[in-house]
Automatic annotation (TrEMBL):
Protein name: Cell division protein FtsQ
Gene source species: Robinsoniella peoriensis
The UniProt record lists the keyword S-adenosyl-L-methionine: no
Region Disordered: start-end pairs: 247-307
GO cellular component, one term: plasma membrane
Keywords attached to this entry: Cell cycle, Cell division, Cell membrane, Membrane, Transmembrane, Transmembrane helix
Residue ranges annotated for the Cell division protein FtsQ/DivIB C-terminal domain, each copy included: 113-224
Pfam family, one: FtsQ_DivIB_C
TM spans (from-to): 20-38
InterPro entries, per database record: Cell_div_FtsQ/DivIB_C, FtsQ_DivIB, POTRA_FtsQ_type
Biased composition (Basic and acidic residues): 250-259, 278-287
Domain POTRA: 38-107
Gene Ontology biological process terms, A to Z: cell division
Length: 335
């Protein structure tokens, strides 16, 4: 009986060893499959505008386990992206095959950059520095006239004047939102804002009624984009919706002034519009105290030049469905 018990005990030990070896073999095979078959060999990147595919790969697949498609898929279904990759809003991993993944990225929107100390400081819609490099990225407007302190990536733009900081971020954000892309955004010594395009300039003035100015500029600009001149929106408000377009070379020269700008040019007062399209009766001709003919447009702007110098290339009054440019005064008058 004792011998039978010993034989059973040996048999159990033998079975236990076989089971343990089987489990180890199974684990080894599983490891070979997981780390061999699921080793990433091909990567696609979609959704990237500012960063290259290689830059995205380096950012997303930075740790030692990231070459495994199972691990990578799991990681970015749980990771806090703001901590892991502050340059991106969202990352999604799609496994196309055990050895192939597609990385979907949603980048934070870069709305502008400021040149300082030989580098370009890019920032997002909240004024957070996203990048500090010598690279010039397409589709991002440059901002001039703004001095920066010590720059730290992921820190706020180091602008000492808080009002100026707000103006820089707000304007860049509004331009991006309305798909308006100037070559340069300039702030002068009094923080007045100007937009420089290839052929013309838009004067925005101080940070007042900025949202109304930019939303209306979106409607106006397509009609004036090919015209040389300056659009003055400094006094533009929701109630006094007039912008003055002055013909002439509105391009910025190396001295920072607009070419063709004259100190003697007078500013026109804003006024309310009252008609959707220009008609001859939209303005009126009268005589001043000296007996000279003067023209007053529908917004109250006055000129003694009785020639229609603000017409389109086709010789017609410029309209856009929202308003028109008065052919005598150059005032943009909304419906």
């Amino acid at each position: 009986m004792e011998q039978g018990y010993k034989r059973k005990k040996k048999r159990r030990k033998k079975i236990g060893k076989i089971a343990a070896l089987s489990i180890l073999a199974l684990l080894l095979i599983s490891a070979i499959v997981v780390f061999g078959l699921f080793r990433i060999q091909e990567v696609e990147v979609v959704g990237n505008d500012y960063y290259t595919a290689d830059e995205i790969k380096k950012m997303v697949m930075s740790d030692s386990m990231a070459q495994n498609s199972i691990y990578l898929t799991w990681k970015y279904s749980h990771a806090n992206i703001q901590e892991e990759l502050p340059f991106l809003s969202t990352v999604e991993i799609e496994m196309l095959a055990p050895y192939k993944v597609r990385i979907h990225v949603y980048e934070k929107t870069i709305v502008g950059y400021i040149q300082t100390a030989g580098s370009n400081v890019y920032f997002d819609k909240d004024g957070v520095v996203m990048e500090n490099s010598q690279e010039v990225r397409e589709g991002v407007p440059m901002i001039s006239g703004v001095n920066l302190g010590k720059v730290e990536v992921l820190g706020k733009l180091p602008i000492e004047d808080k009002d100026l900081f707000k103006s820089v971020v707000t304007l860049a954000q509004l331009l991006n939102k309305n798909a308006i892309m100037p070559d340069e955004i300039h702030f002068d010594e009094e923080n007045a804002m100007s937009l420089y395009f290839a052929k013309n300039t838009v004067l925005l003035g101080q940070n007042k009624n900025l949202e109304e100015k930019i939303s209306n500029l979106k409607a106006i600009y397509p009609k004036m984009s090919t015209m040389d001149g300056t659009l003055d929106m400094e006094n533009f408000t929701a109630d006094s919706s007039t912008a003055i377009f002055k013909k002439g070379n509105g391009k910025k020269d190396s001295a920072g002034k607009e070419e063709g700008e004259s100190e003697s040019e007078s500013e026109s007062e804003s006024g309310k519009s009252s008609g959707p399209n220009y008609k001859e009766e939209s303005g009126r001709v009268s005589k001043d105290a000296a007996g000279n003919e003067v023209y007053t447009d529908d917004a109250g702007n006055v000129t003694n030049d009785m020639t229609q110098q603000y017409l389109g290339d086709d010789g017609q009054v410029i309209t856009d469905g929202y308003g028109y440019i008065d052919p005598y005064t150059g005032a943009y008058i909304l419906n």
